[in-house]
TrEMBL record:
Residues 32-85 form the Peptidoglycan binding-like domain. Keywords: Signal. InterPro entries: Peptidoglycan-bd-like, PGBD-like_sf, PGBDSf. This is Peptidoglycan binding-like domain-containing protein. It holds the Pfam family PG_binding_1. The keyword Cell membrane does not apply. It comes from the Eukaryota. SUPFAM superfamilies: PGBD-like (SSF47090). Residues 1-17 form the signal peptide.
């Protein structure tokens, strides 16, 4: 009896132990967004036989790539993505290697770019740079790109967080997961009129990440991650100058920074398009770019 209960407990725990964004082990035949994200990461594994296609179906090529990754990291080579392999993939293959091309936004027909360089550990506040069409940096501001904590969620799936607002000194839940860290890479972005809830999002126009073009953002935004904004808030218990709170994947900045960004953008001829929330397809031509580079490994 006790042994039966222990076995049941072990089975339950081995499922619960899969790190987000996955909730169950993945093996040949599995399909879906979780497999697609696994394939995108495995495609970065040195030594795989051929370019791995992110088809969303765990096929023979995926299994071979899993075996290569397992062997490279000293794991049991069984071609199945259980907890240890999933943790290893996240630790070694999550970084997209995206680098900003340094070109002025006008080179791609855009009116602005906002650039952030972030460490993997998102607990630190970083500097954001607002770059005009001609490539000059016109404003610098402090920002935090930390989503919820791993395990700090209301429903065990990352989103929504159990508490709001919340602060922590953790790495943050990975960018592939609901409400996790702000995804890295290049994305189309646009200025939108203020959100409806000023306490949560501030009273100023916000910059919306519309669609990924490179790096992790390319396969995450908007179909896996959406509603990612550069915004502020009237967070209870917080005042300007203090550490910014964790987000649900957005970029957080001080009220005066977000105010300044919206004023500067509009002075450069950027229109604050009427905020339609996360409606897809995005109803306007995005006027700018968000470029988020992960420093280090
Ligand atoms: C990936 O897709 C391309 C084009 O469809 C194909 O030529 C290639 O064989 C595929 N690679 C694998 C590993 O399946
Ligand atoms: C992340 O950085 C914070 C300091 O900002 C530090 O306290 C914490 O230990 C770091 N976490 C890891 C896992 O490195
Ligand atoms: C670049 O654009 C900004 C914003 O429009 C402007 O203030 C600045 O003078 C321009 N710089 C050059 C070198 O033209």
């Amino acid at each position: 009896m006790a042994r039966l209960i222990l076995a049941a407990l072990a089975a339950a725990m081995s499922c619960a132990a899969m790190p987000l964004p996955w909730t169950d082990p993945l093996r040949k035949g599995a399909t879906g967004t979780g497999v697609m994200m696994l394939q995108q990461m495995l495609a970065r594994q040195p030594g795989i036989a051929a370019p791995l296609n992110a088809t969303g179906t765990f096929d023979d090529a995926t299994e071979d790539a899993v075996r290569v990754a397992q062997a490279a990291n000293g794991l049991d080579v069984d071609g199945v993505v259980g907890e240890q392999t999933a943790l290893s993939v996240l630790a070694t293959l999550a970084a997209d290697g995206y680098r900003d091309d340094g070109k002025p936004p006008s080179a791609s027909g855009h009116k602005f770019k906002i650039l952030f360089v972030v460490p993997r550990n998102r607990s630190v506040q970083v500097e954001g740079s607002l770059i005009a069409a001609n490539g000059s940096t016109v404003f610098r501001f402090g920002a935090r790109l930390h989503g919820v904590n791993a395990g700090d969620s209301g429903d065990d799936v990352g989103c929504p967080p159990a508490a709001w607002p919340a602060w922590s000194n953790t790495v943050g839940l990975n960018q592939f997961s609901p409400c996790g860290n702000t995804p890295t890479g290049l994305a189309l972005a646009d200025l939108n009129s203020p959100e409806d809830e000023p306490d949560k999002y501030g009273p100023y126009p916000v910059v919306r990440m519309v669609q990924g073009l490179a790096g992790n953002a390319k396969f995450l935004v908007p179909h896996v991650r959406d509603g990612i904004l550069v915004h502020t808030g009237k967070w209870p218990g917080w005042s300007p100058g203090q550490t910014l709170p964790n987000s649900e994947g957005c970029v957080h900045a001080e009220p005066e920074s977000i105010h300044a960004i919206s004023e500067i953008l509009q002075s450069m001829g950027v229109k604050a398009n009427k905020n339609r929330g996360g409606v897809l397809p995005y109803p306007y031509v995005p006027q700018g770019l968000l470029s988020i580079v992960q420093s280090g490994a």
